[in-house]
Fold:
Amino acid sequence: MTQTTLAIRLAAPADAVEIARTHDASWRYAYRGVIEGAHLEKMIARRGPAWWKTVLTKGRCTMVLEMSGKIAGYVTFGPNRLREAEQEGEIYELYLRPEYQGLGFGRALFNAARGELKRLRYAGLAVRALEANEPANAFYKALGGSIVGQRHELIGRVVMRLNVFSWD
Structure:
């Protein structure tokens, strides 16, 4: 009988290939039908293993969630870049492979990143989510996030609305 283990840890450059695979699978699942197909493919292609290795080598704050040694999700975070929110920290991305969604692992990654932001002395945090990505909006609301603003971004040839959530 094998035992399943769960671990959340800081990512290393050696994780680049698995993070890229997780990014690919999670973005296809989250954004198919939300972002125009050809543009979505371009966005995914730009974030391959070489891109992730560069990001991780530069020391960007990234944590991974491992299930029995396999990366099932990741979260990136750091200082807030959103003028719509006063919080000092921001979660830039939080994604899980589709088969790991809805099991509490997203909450675990969120809490790990939030804890690390607190450890780094960032007061509060902000997150943005495409308004059309209903599961992401429901997730952040369930975690107690409040919508404090909206912004518009050109994604491909479409201007899309993003909700900005915050936590103190």
Observations:
- Residues 6-167 form a domain with the Aminopeptidase fold (CATH 3.40.630.30).
- The mean pLDDT is 95.
- The helical segments are 16-31, 37-46, 49-57, 105-119, 134-142.
- The first helix runs from residue 16 to 31.
